[in-house]
Design brief:
- This protein is of the alpha/beta class.
- The chain has 2 domains: 236 residues, Aldehyde Dehydrogenase, Chain A, domain 1, CATH 3.40.605.10; 166 residues, Aldehyde Dehydrogenase, Chain A, domain 2 (3-Layer(aba) Sandwich), CATH 3.40.309.
- The chain is built from 16 helices and 16 strands.
- The chain has a 7-stranded mixed β-sheet, sandwiched between helices. Strands 11-12-13-10-9-14-15 form a 7-stranded mixed β-sheet, with helices on both faces.
- Helix 3 runs antiparallel to helix 6, helix 7 packs parallel to helix 8 and helix 11 packs across helix 12.
- The radius of gyration is 23 Å and the shape is globular.
- 37% of the residues are buried.
């Protein structure tokens, strides 16, 4: 399915509409009355309120069950579409009045949209493709969205509902279900765009760069690596909440905890901590319900293979679909996912030299420590390149937060200076 001028159309007639897409965008940009943030916020708020009344439950509930997301977490995510949250987001990112004061010389400045954004969305978070488009709309951009593989129809449903609440948005949203293998079509989108918004890993970003003109801005979000850092002053309550976070997210988000660095150089301390956390992880797993059977089976094979290979550099605790692997190295890496956590030693004196080399792959650290040492450790993590320092709830969402260390609304904008 595709979404074009507010209408949902069968994707098998997609090519018919691609040829005139650039002309459609130019016509919209020539419009003397572009859309405003208020239009977008009002439509989003209407959508949010309808969702909170349960009017989309026939779509939402099956998706939550499929993704193993609680209804409470869905409500937290949905709140990002509310008027209160979006107005706060605009105020934080663009300034309270969203206007720019003149320079001392009297030159006036005004923020304008970048123009046309091509969003290449990832499928690891339901609703993220639509939210990426909403950020583009808030800044007045025309948005072309390539749906991720396996999209469940939620993105088109959300965006078509948004247009129903505010028809003026219909010429600012285009959604296409185009496979990544259709490179010529994707190149057409890239040629039209002023900026390409990429949600994905290094390969996705490299692919976007390969199809983009040198004049086209690349705005990359993720994939990122996140971890927890624990000292001996961390409480068992915080550790259990971290275990709950791991089970709730199944470690598939950029902000999910892949593993735990412990502030020690003593293998005995590391092993003791690993046993303690394994028990907490089993308890959290029982509380949240087991992960997908297929993923549990895949990881069981991986762990069994590790045991057969008799690795001398690790100790494995595994039961009930969860595992803890204690490793002797201090490398930051992706875990096996789905409630399988590595634990490694990393004394604070070696933090920057160990983590800094991962540069733009860094995102969140769940810092579990004593209050007296928090400022020191947070400073080390920030200098190492971490952009979000949280407690045990590493994937918490707060209005006004940056994306990977920068504000998207400014990334999707440009400043125009005017004499006189």
């Amino acid at each position: 399915m595709i979404l074009l001028h507010g209408e949902v159309i069968e994707s098998n007639i997609e090519q018919k509409y691609l040829n005139g897409l650039y002309e459609d965008c130019i016509k919209t940009l020539s419009n003397a009355e572009p859309i405003t943030a208020e239009m977008v916020i009002s439509a989003c708020d209407a959508l949010y309120r309808k969702a909170m009344r349960g009017e989309y439950d026939e779509i939402v509930l099956p998706l939550l069950q499929l993704s193993d997301i609680s209804y409470e977490r869905f409500q937290t995510m949905a709140a990002l579409f509310s008027r209160e949250e979006l107005e706060y987001k605009c105020a934080v990112e663009l300034g309270e009045d969203c206007e720019m004061k003149p320079l001392k010389s009297g030159i006036h400045r005004k923020r304008y949209p970048l123009g046309i954004l091509f969003h290449i969305a990832a499928g690891n978070v339901d609703g993220l493709p639509a939210y990426s488009v909403i950020e583009g709309l808030l800044t007045g951009n025309i948005n072309i969205l390539k749906l991720p593989a396996g999209d469940n129809g939620l993105s088109i449903k959300l965006l078509s509902e948004l247009i129903r609440f505010e028809p003026a948005l219909k010429d600012y949203v285009y959604v296409f279900d185009v496979p990544s293998t259709e490179t010529e079509t994707l190149k057409k989108f890239a040629e039209i765009a002023d900026g390409i918004v990429v949600w994905g890993g290094d390969e996705a970003v490299a692919a976007a760069r390969s199809m983009a003109d040198v004049q086209t801005r690349i705005i990359a979000w993720g994939h990122k690596l996140s971890f927890a850092y624990v000292t001996e002053q961390a409480s068992e309550e915080d550790l259990y909440r971290l275990a709950l976070h791991i089970c709730e997210t199944n470690q598939v988000l950029c902000s999910s905890c892949q593993g735990i660095f412990v502030d020690t150089e003593d293998w005995t301390v590391l092993e003791s901590f690993g046993e303690q956390f394994f028990e907490l992880l089993k308890k959290a797993n029982a509380e949240k319900g087991k992960a997908d059977m297929g993923m549990r089976g895949r990881n069981t094979i991986r762990l069994y293979n590790d045991l057969l290979e008799n690795h001398q550099d690790r100790k494995i605790f595994s039961a009930e679909g969860v595992s803890v692997v204690i490793r002797q190295d201090s490398e930051l890496e992706l875990s096996y996912l789905f409630r399988n956590v590595w634990i490694k030693a990393l004394p604070r004196r070696k933090m920057i030299e160990t983590i800094k080399k991962h540069k733009n792959h860094l995102q969140t650290c769940g810092l579990l420590c004593g209050e007296a040492e928090r400022a020191e450790l947070a400073g080390l993590l920030a200098r190492a390149g971490i952009v979000r320092i949280t407690g045990s709830d590493m994937s918490r969402m707060v209005a006004g937060e940056a994306h990977d260390g920068t504000y998207p609304l400014w990334e999707y904008s440009r400043i125009v200076e005017l004499d006189g």
